[in-house]
């Protein structure tokens, strides 16, 4: 496989994963009080979301790269 084809396949897989999941969430520790003797912190859950059509655009871009990478003859 050529470079553009590999990137195209990766983009297609990434776009499908983005469409299927819609985002992800993670926990982040946030300090409330930070003194010499006492450290208070809490864990907050943060969520990262993206619209479904963003994954579709990435899939279309990956297909485009596959077509462009496959048309070059050496």
Mean pLDDT: 87
Q: What is the C-alpha radius of gyration, as a whole number of Å?
A: 21 Å
Biggest β-sheet: strands ordered side by side in the sheet? 1-2
> Which structural category do the helix and sheet elements fall into?
alpha+beta
**Largest β sheet strand count, sense and barrel closure:** 2 strands, antiparallel
The number of distinct helices, counting runs of at least 4 residues, comes to: 2
Report, as a whole number of angstroms, the end-to-end distance. 13 Å
Shape: elongated
Low-confidence stretches: none
Number of strands: 2
Strand content: 25-35%
- Percent of residues in helices: 40-55%
The number of domains: 1
Order of SSEs, N→C? HEEH
Keywords: Membrane, Transmembrane, Transmembrane helix
Transmembrane segments: 6-26, 47-68
């Amino acid at each position: 496989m050529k470079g553009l084809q590999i990137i195209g396949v990766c983009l297609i897989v990434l776009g499908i994963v983005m469409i299927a999941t819609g985002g992800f969430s993670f926990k982040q520790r946030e300090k409330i009080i930070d003194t010499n003797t006492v450290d208070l912190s809490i864990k907050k859950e943060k969520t990262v979301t993206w619209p479904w059509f963003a994954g579709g655009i990435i899939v279309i871009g990956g297909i485009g790269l596959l077509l462009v990478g496959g048309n070059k003859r050496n």
